[in-house]
Histidinol-phosphate aminotransferase
Amino acid sequence: MQTTPLTESSLLPLVPAYDSILELAPYQTGKPIEELTREYGISDVVKLASNENPMGCSPRVTLAVTEQLGQLARYPDGNGYYLKQALADFNDVNIDQITLGNGSDDLLDILARSFVGANDAIVYSQYAFVVYSMLAKMQGATDVEVPAHRFGHDLKAMSQAVQDNPNTKIVFIANPNNPTGTQLEHKELRQFVASVPSSVLVVLDEAYIEYSPESNNRALIDEFDNVIIVRTFSKAYGLAGLRVGYALSSVAVADLLNRIRQPFNVSRIGLAAAAAALADQDFIEKTRLMNDEQMRWLEKQFDALGLGFIKSHANFIMVEMDDEDALLINQALLEQGVIVRPLLGYGLPTWLRITVGVAEDNMRLIDTLRSILTDD
Ligand SMILES: Cc1ncc(COP(=O)(O)O)c(C=O)c1O
C-alpha cells in the first residue's frame, strides 16, 4: 500500500479528477492479528484496535449463514427486502426510509457522491472519524474542520462554520464520536439541526449507538427531512467481517441513495446474518453490560497507573501516555502481542485508543502496559 505522499508527476500522464485526491493518505486500519503473528511470530495476540465486539456475534448468525451456503451461486436480493423490513420494524420507520450499505463506510461514500461536488464544502469536527475529511478530498470539495471543544464536537462553532461556508452540503457528526468517545446531548443536537439551512444534510453517524442508547436521535428523522442517521452491524452486532450498514432518512433521500448505490452492495450472507443479529437483542444487552463493566474496570486501572483518559460512551477509550510518545508505547505493546490504535493521524501523538475487550484481554493489556511504563 502507498504510504508516501502522491505527487502529480508520479501518475503522469494520468491525472486524477481533483488535486485534493493527491492529498489522500490511505485509511489506517487496526493491524490484523495475522499480520502481527507473521511479523513477530507471536501466536497469542490480543486485538483491541478496531472497536470490534470481543464477544463475537449472536449464535443465531451461524445458523442464518449456514442456511445461505447452498445458495452462493445466486445473487442476493438487491433490495434487501427482509433485512429492511426487520430494520423498519425495529426503528419504527417505513421500509422506504432505509438504505442498506456494504458497511456504514459505503453509505458515507454514497452520501458524499450523491450530494457533494467540487464547488461544495463538507463540515466536520476536529478529532471526528477520519473518513469525513477523506470524502471531502475524494469529491474535490472544501473540507471545513471545526476545532473541537474538550475533544468533542463544538456544535455552536459548527453551526457558525455552516453559515460562513454557504456552499456546505453535508455536516458529519459522529455520536458517540470515534476516536474520542464523546457524546452529544439530544437537546443541543436538535438545536444545531434547527440552526442549519434545510438544504444542508446533517449526517448523524451512530456507529456506536448500541453502547449509548440514550444518544439515539431517531426522533430527528420525523422532524427534519435533512437529517440522516447512519448505523452499522460492525460494532456491537459483531459482524465487521461481513460489511453491513444502514441509513434512516426521509423517503426522498433514501430514494436518491438507492439509485446511487451499487445494485448488490450487501452480500447474501451479509443480509441473512444482519437480520439474524438484529433479532437477538439479548446479545446486544449482554454486550452492553460486559462493555460497561469492563470500561469501569479499565478506568480504574488507568487511574492507578496515573494515565489520563476521556470519558467514553462507546466500546473504546482514549488514554493519554503522559509526555511519552504513544507510538513507542504502541510499538512495545505490539512486540508483546497487544494491538491498540495510535492516534498520530488524528493529531493526537500522545494518545492511544483502546477497544474494550473481554476481562482476560483487558488484564493482559493492563499487565503489559504496566510493565512497559515501569521499565522506563
Ligand atoms: C464513527 C464510525 N463511523 C463509521 C465507521 C465504519 O464502520 P463500518 O464501515 O464497518 O460500518 C466506523 C468504523 O470504525 C466508525 O468508527
